[in-house]
Amino acid sequence: MSAFSHNVRECIRSAVTDHDRRFACLYGMLLFGKAVHRDEICLKSESEVFSTLFPELMHAVFPDVPLRTESRPRRDGGCLRIYRITGGSYVTSIRRAFHIHEERHIDMRNLPTNSIGIFLGGVFLTCGSITDPAKEYHLEFNAPTEALCRELCDILLSVGVHPNVMQRRYAYAVYLKMSEEIGDLLTFMGAQRCTLALIDIQIDKEVSNRVNRMNNCDMANIDKVISASERQCRDIRELMRCGRFDTLSPELRELAELRLENPHLSLQELAELLEKPIGRSGVNHRFRRIAEAAAACRKEGDHASS
């Protein structure tokens, strides 16, 4: 898990500040958990934030319901924690409190208007992930059923974000790829600090991309200058070879000599070195006249050899 993803979870945890928010957040966690059966509710997570917050919320909302916890070490050094609520009476009391039926649906009776954001935060804590935005913009929920996927999309649309859906083998991925919409959703879930961090990363990326484009443009311009200079020098040497250089007008000879002495300079820079400076277009026109004279020399040379 990236540091950014961990920070999002910490922000969501900090936003659970009163009874309604605890109730809504826990509802999101339970509803989108791995399994909700008649005799057992099971949730799994590798998140440290989840492992702290979920037991706290369970104790606050259902103080009499026992929670069984298992830990399974991962090869990468992480730890998968499994939370089970067993016993028909305990499971029934939870399902009745949240109106959770066999086919799970989002019941808006559990969500006062000011609690929808933290409900989505609870869903994110259970089945959500976010990629480090320095690498890619991608926030995702893995909904366990098609019905929950569809209803989650409806809620996201109602708060102004436009999710995409992809079916996987065991879940439905509901995801966002636009940085602005990811930022809006983070803010809505209570992770405003992460939204600001996301904006900073976005600005850094845009500045870096702009610099890269400018560098690429500069390199392309340098390549053009070098290519043009090489062509112009070849023309000038051709005129020298065939004895036509001294027949050029004084202004063409001056420019030709400057070019041979300064093969790296642009047309504008050459123009500024002339005894009587002219514009870039004037320099370009003079080089065309030199190129025409060189072409005539080559043509004569071809006729003579034939």
Ends apart, CA distance between termini: 76 Å
Q: Mind describing the biggest β-sheet?
A: 4 strands, antiparallel
Unreliable runs: none
Strand content bin:
5-15%
Radius of gyration: 35 Å
Helix percentage range: 55-70%
Looking at this structure, what is the CATH superfamily of the largest domain? Homing endonucleases
Number of strands: 8
Within the largest sheet, what's the order of strands? Answer: 1-2-4-3
Number of domains: 2
Task: Please outline the helices and strands.
Layout: H1 3-14, H2 19-31, E1 35-36, E2 40-45, H3 48-61, E3 68-73, E4 79-86, H4 88-98, H5 116-127, E5 128-130, E6 139-143, H6 146-158, E7 164-167, E8 172-176, H7 179-188, H8 192-241, H9 250-261, H10 267-273, H11 280-305
Antiparallel strand pairs: 1-2, 2-4, 3-4, 5-6, 6-8, 7-8
Helix pairs in contact: 1-3, 2-3, 2-5, 7-8, 8-11, 9-11, 10-11
Task: Walk me through the structure.
With 306 residues, the protein is α+β, with helices and mostly antiparallel strands. The chain has two domains: 3-190, Endonuclease I-creI, CATH 3.10.28.10; 217-305, no CATH class. Helix content is 59%, strand content 13%. The chain is built from eleven helices and eight strands. It has helices at residues 3-14, 19-31, 48-61, 88-98, 116-127, 146-158, 179-188, 192-241, 250-261, 267-273, 280-305, and strands at 35-36, 40-45, 68-73, 79-86, 128-130, 139-143, 164-167, 172-176. Strands 1-2-4-3 form a four-stranded antiparallel sheet. Strands 5-6-8-7 form a four-stranded antiparallel sheet. α1 packs parallel to α3 (48-61), α2 (19-31) crosses α3 (48-61) and α9 crosses α11 (280-305). The chain is rod-shaped, with a radius of gyration of 35 Å. The mean pLDDT is 89.
